[in-house]
Amino acid sequence: MMFAPVGELGIALLAYLLIYLLPPLSILLLVAFQRDWRLAQWLRRHRVVLRGIQMLLLLGYALIGLVVFDFRQSAREGAIERAQADIRRHPVLAQASMVRGILAPAGSKIDLGYSEDWNEASSAEFSSPVSWQGLQLTHIDWRYDRLSLAAPGQVDGWHCAAGESLATHSLSDMPLRLAYCTLASLTVLPDITLPAGTRVQSDIYVPENSCMVRWTAAANRALETGSKAPAPADCADSKEEGVVAVWLLHIPETATRIRWKNQGWHTLTLKLDMQSGKVLDYGGETATGAHDPAARAVVKR
């Protein structure tokens, strides 16, 4: 910017003031001379002053024009720099290249984030499917640990569908630990057959008889009644069943009713113990349109 040495802000403020001062002053002088006011008569007698005012007006308008031009030029240069930086951060590969250990084919679109470091790429959209950890990928996002599959693939024991993003707990985990995905095909479990389209999500289950649940209930009652809150619970040595890692299985409504507990269901959600495969909790809507009174509400996080 040409005004940088004298201060961009000062020049901008001056130009801003001149925009509001010069037009009214110019109009005043024009009206004064047209109507032959005393001011105009005095200026005619003092031509040096008149010439000085005219020069100041011209210089003021010239300064406004230069400032406007300079700021527009700076804006264009900034836009060009941002566009160039965006191109550098989102390159399209002219040839196959290694990106965070994956050979990305030519034509792939890479998001380098703000680091512009190929070893720290944020995501990659592949021009053709690439093989990684036994999966066929069309997209990988390292920021959110998400994958898009070109074909159904096996992740953490589940047959996940293609064409939809699935999430893992960390892409650095080997083998991958599934956070959620949608099943690609029928999956037979000991107690139920899950249809394709079932949503699988890792979750936790806290039994009603656990130490922490009882302490939380007591603390809530104390808060409601205004009584003394119980001492913080130390559940580390509790022999009672504690928090359990589970698979949250949400079975959407299908053309064929879901069979569970000797009855049909429109929708069904199960909490399945990851270790034992035992169903710990369930909920949903029965085929009669009512909620099973024996089923507790299962909230999907």
**Tally of DSSP helical segments:** 4
Straight-line N-to-C gap:
53 Å
Assembly state of the chains shown: single chain
Instruction: Bin the strand percentage.
Output: 25-35%
Q: SSE order, as H and E? A: HHHEEEEEEEEEEEEEHEEEE
Contiguous runs where pLDDT drops below 50 for at least 5 residues: 292-301
For the residues shown, what is the average pLDDT? 79
Q: Quick one: how many beta strands? A: 17
| Spatial extent as radius of gyration | 36 Å
Shape: elongated
Q: How would you sum up the major sheet?
A: 11 strands, antiparallel
The assigned structural class equals alpha+beta
User: Portion of residues in helices?
Assistant: 25-40%
Describe what is shown at a glance:
The radius of gyration is 36 Å and the shape is elongated. The protein contains four helices and 17 strands.
Keyword list:
single chain, disordered C terminus, alpha+beta, 17 strands, 301 residues
Overview of this protein structure:
The chain crosses the membrane at residues 12-33, 53-71. This protein has helices spanning 8-34, 38-45, 47-89, 211-225; strands at residues 97-99, 102-104, 109-111, 123-132, 135-141, 146-149, 153-155, 158-160, 165-168, 178-182, 187-188, 193-194, 199-205, 244-251, 258-260, 263-273, 279-286. With 301 residues, it is of the alpha+beta class. The strands form four sheets. Strands 3, 4, 5, 6, 9, 10, 13, 14, 15, 16 and 17 form an eleven-stranded antiparallel beta sheet that branches. A two-stranded antiparallel ribbon has the order 1-2.
